[in-house]
Amino acid sequence: MRKSTVTTIFLCLVLLSLSFDAEGRKRPSYKELKDINRTLAENRDSLQKELTALNEQIALLSSENDSLKTALSTTVDRLDDERIFAGPVPDTLWMSGTEMEDSSEVERFTSNVSDSVMVARLAALRTRVSLPYNSTVRSYIVKYSERYSEGVSRMLGESGYYFPIFENILSKYDLPLELKYLPVIESALKTKARSASGARGLWQFIYSAAKTYSLNVDSYVDERMDTYKATDAAARYLKDSYERFGDWALAIASYNCGPGSGLRAIKIAGKSDFWSIYPYLPSETRGYLPAFVGAMYAMEYYREYGIEPGPALFDGEEVAGVTIDRRLHFNQLSEVLGIPVSVIEELNSQYIHNIIPADSQHKYTLLLPRSYMDRFEQEVPDSIYNYKADELFTKSVIIGRDQPAVKKTRKGKKSAKSGGSSKLGVYTVKAGDNLSRIAKQNGTTVEKIKKANGMKSDVVIPGKKIVIPKK
């Protein structure tokens, strides 16, 4: 074969190999590659434009969100101490034209009592607070009057003591007397009621609100559970809320969620009535006004549902108060006067350790049923105040004896100069201590330490002083 022919064949084979990839697929031509590259460039430009548009939308939404947050914050700050609505007291009864969209949140109850009867009964109550009526309110009415009849019965019996106190203080601030029903839904008229968030007492004050309205909370006294002082604070809170909102429905709702949440809901809704701002209120607040109406209805129309008032507190006896200027324990009163501790606690729940920490500079009030107060006043004071005082009270400052001097024995062990005493002295428990270690360090036994200190368990508390007996 001629050389030129071989060369030609070789070049053809090379060109043929370049037209296919390793897997035998035909490679695209130069023209095809140019077309593909042009298409990719066009797609890239289109995607870049879409990405730019999306970034502009995100920036716009972010700007609007920041503006809304700023506006809300500014509004809350500016209107915090101002009244944002003005106008006359609303009509006694109004029908809500709009049902709540998320009604699934509310447990629905049925009743044989018609809507028209319930509306007529609410209208007859002659209240200053506007009373709404819709399917949600109806459910709360049925819940309290038909499903919670035992609780309503108990509260009816106890209301004979509490409601006159509430009404007297509400009248003092010229507030609607029907606000006395708020503690029914707040605490079920239990002076020691405590919520998961730490709110306490009949009116369920949290710590910060208690301080704002001058209720004292310390290691011995929690005035959130003082019936008189907590009611006075609640009345001032409600008065402030009404002056801020100009509407009793909103003032009542804000008692549950705070004024800040109410103002934010109004800002978002763009309206100033309860049902318009309802979707923007905290979930626990949405049922607050309907529950208030339901509880009021049940407490007013209990006879129509066959509910009998339960036993009156303290057998309906008049309650009297006396000023205490010396430290006093409930057990002293109970054992000397023969009064159940539970009765003392019901009337004086603010003394959280059953101790009235009074002295000449700090005086407190003690409430007792009249018959027991008469006995208290007839007793010689010392017979009550001194009764088991050493046993019932723990000293605030404990002064221990000096630790005896310790010297080395011939064997290198420590011994104490007891001077004939049967005890070494007083030892202050340190962090990490236990009875076994303390006994070993002081040359005695766990059993002797427990016996000398009247201890029933092996637990020791850092900072506590314990007597160390001789080995």
What is the tally of beta strands?
10
Unreliable segments (pLDDT under 50, ≥5 consecutive)? 70-104, 397-401, 411-423
What does the average pLDDT come to? 80
From the spread of the alpha carbons, the general shape counts as flat
CATH topology (fold) name of the largest domain? Lysozyme
Radius of gyration: 39 Å
Structural class: mainly alpha
User: Between the first and last Cα atoms, what is the distance in angstroms?
Assistant: 123 Å
Tell me the name of the CATH class of the largest domain. Answer: Mainly Alpha
Total number of helical segments?
A: 20
Main attributes of the structure:
single chain, 471 residues, mainly alpha, Lysozyme, two-stranded parallel sheet, two-stranded antiparallel sheet, 10 strands, flat
Description:
By secondary structure, this protein is mostly helical. It folds into 4 domains: 1-41, no CATH class; 93-305, Lysozyme; 317-392, no CATH class; 406-469, LysM domain (Membrane-bound Lytic Murein Transglycosylase D, Chain A), CATH 3.10.350. It has 20 helices and 10 strands. The strands form 5 sheets. Strands 1-2 form a two-stranded parallel ribbon. Strands 3-6 form a two-stranded antiparallel ribbon. Strand 7 and strand 8 form a beta hairpin. Helix 2 crosses helix 10 (259-269), helix 4 (135-147) crosses helix 13 (288-300) and helix 8 packs across helix 9. The radius of gyration is 39 Å and the shape is flat. Mean pLDDT is 80; it is low at 70-104, 397-401 and 411-423.
